[in-house]
């Protein structure tokens, strides 16, 4: 893998998109493990259901604070969403 500083904008965008989708998949998997709907998770974390849906599909790239709120609502370590 190239050093981050040597990557083109296109390569960096592709990496960001991949990471965003992977995080979304982890959020969905953890939510489903807890048998929560998107609406229930959103309510617990203080978001709209559509926002949680966008995170899960990789449409939106959540901030660290957003991931922390979601992890707290799921009662898991935030790092679990980033592994």
Provide a descriptive summary of the structure in words.
Helices cover 64% and strands 0% of the residues. The protein has 83 residues and is mainly α. It is elongated. The mean pLDDT is 96.
Notable features of this structure?
mainly alpha, 83 residues, 434 Repressor (Amino-terminal Domain), 64% helix
Gist of the model:
This protein is mostly helical. It has helices spanning 9-33, 38-45, 49-57, 64-74.
* Integer average pLDDT: 96
Taking all Cα atoms into account, the compactness measure Rg is: 14 Å
Element pattern in H and E: HHHH
Give the oligomeric state of the chains in this entry, treating copies of one chain as homo and distinct chains as hetero: single chain
Uncertain runs: none
Largest sheet geometry? none
Query: Approximately what portion of the residues adopt beta-strand conformation?
Result: under 5%
CATH superfamily of the domain at 36-83: lambda repressor-like DNA-binding domains
Number of helices: 4
Q: What gap, in angstroms, lies between the N and C termini?
A: 18 Å
- Estimate the global geometry from the Cα principal axes: elongated
